[in-house]
Amino acid sequence: MDGLLGRFLSFDKMITGTIVKFLYYILLALVILGGIFFLLQSLFSGNFGMFLGGLILLPLAIIYVRMICEMFLVIFRISDNLAALRQMKENETK
């Protein structure tokens, strides 16, 4: 099992970093579309206070999504670095 399927099933290389990046773009689009919908709905309903709240919450939601995805990426990069250190240590002892 040296092919793509073998690498996928052996968990030697993490693919979650790519998935997190893809998930970030999906969540970013959802947050922006939801924010625009919220802003337009509050504007057309005449609730100006809710509109201002949406203007404040939209950038904060974008930053929050970015922070969550970055935390996941940091965890997986730590895992990759630990695997590389383990491999270096095994090569030194041989």
Question: If you had to describe this structure to a student in words, what would you say it looks like?
Answer:
This protein is mostly helical and 94 residues long. It is built from three helices and no strands. The chain has helices spanning 4-10, 16-45, 48-93. Helix 2 (16-45) packs antiparallel against helix 3.
Keywords:
0% strand, mainly alpha, 3 helices, 94 residues
* Secondary structure: number of strands: 0
Low-confidence stretches: none
User: Structural class of the secondary elements?
Assistant: mainly alpha
Mean pLDDT: 87
Radius of gyration: 21 Å
Relative strand content: under 5%
Shape: elongated
Largest sheet: none
Integer tally of domains: 1
Total number of helical segments?
3
Helix content bin:
over 70%
Task: Tell me the span between the first and last alpha carbons.
Answer: 25 Å
Order of helices and strands: HHH
Question: What can be said about this structure in brief?
Answer:
By secondary structure, the chain is an all-alpha fold. It is built from three helices and no strands. The chain has helices spanning 4-10, 16-45, 48-93.
